[in-house]
Amino acid sequence: MAAGHDTSANVLSWCVYLMATKPEVQNKLRDETRELGQDSEITFERLDTLPYMNNFVKETLRVYANATTIHCQANVDETICGTFIPKGTTFGVVPHVSLMTPLIWGDDVDDFDPGRWDLLSEAAQSPYAFSTFSNSPRICLGRLFAMREIKIILVEMVRNYRFLEVDGPFTVENPSLTLRP
User: Fold this and answer.
1) Structural domains of the chain ordered from first start
2) Pick from 66, 136, 67, 62: nearest CA to 104
3) How far apart, in whole angstroms, are the C-alpha atoms of residue 85 and residue 78?
4) Known SUPFAM superfamilies for this protein (predicted)?
5) pLDDT value at position 2?
6) Predicted local confidence at residue 94, as pLDDT
7) Distance separating alpha carbons of residues 138 and 156, to the nearest angstrom
8) Are 173 and 5 in contact (CB under 8 A)?
9) What angle is formed at CA 62 by the lines to CA 60 and CA 64, rounded to 5 degrees?
10) What is the pLDDT along the chain (181 residues), one digit of tens a residue?
11) Is the CB of residue 71 less than 8 Å from the CB of residue 181?
C-alpha cells in the first residue's frame, strides 16, 4: 500500500513540469485563480469554481498516472477473452493502458489537453476509464482528499510563482511503485 506516501508530491511535480513546458496552460491557471483574489481563503466551495484547474489536475493524472500497477484479486471465477481466471487469482492492472487508449480518449490521446474533460465521450465517462485511483470496492479512500490537497497547493503555487519555460523531452528512467519525475 502506497497511500499518501509520495503520490500527491509526485502529481504536483508533474504539474510543475507541465506548467513549465506549457506556458499557455500556466497562464490559463493563473487567470482562473486570479478570480479568487490574491489573499482570499481557499475553501472547498471556491475550489469547485475552478473548472480549468480541475481539468488540469485530471489530465495530469491521466497522462502521468501515479500508480504503475494496481494489484487485484478475482473474487469470482471469470472467463475473459477465452481465458479462465479462477477465484483468488492475483493479477495486476496497469492504469496507463486505459488512461492512454484512443478508443476511450480519442486519437489525440498522447496530447496533454485539459479541455478534453469538457467534452468527454461516452467511453471516457465510464468510471473504469479514469482508473488513476482504481475502481470497485477497493477504490482509493483518499482520492477526494488528494484532489483537494493538490488543487489547494496548486492555487498557492500559481498565485505566488511563475514557472519558467523549459524545452526538450523528459524521460522517466527509474519508475517505481509510483511514477515520479
Assistant:
1) 7-160 (1.10.630.10)
2) 62
3) 5
4) Cytochrome P450
5) 46
6) 84
7) 32
8) no
9) 60
10) 445 557 888 899 899 999 999 999 999 999 999 988 777 788 888 888 999 999 999 999 999 988 778 888 889 999 989 999 999 999 888 888 889 999 999 999 999 999 999 999 999 998 888 888 887 777 888 888 999 999 999 999 999 999 998 777 766 665 555 555 5
11) no
72 annotated binding-site participant: no
Q: Cell 476509464 identifies what position?
A: 129
First to last CA, the chain: 20
Three cell numbers written together for 24: 499557455
- Dist. CA 36–CA 29, nearest whole Å: 12
Record the cell numbers describing residue 9, joined without a space.
Answer: 508530491
**What cell numbers appear for 102 in the block?**
484512443
| Confidence at residue 67, expressed as pLDDT on a 0 to 100 scale | 78
Buried b (16+ CB within 10 A) or exposed e, 61-72: bbbbbbbeebee
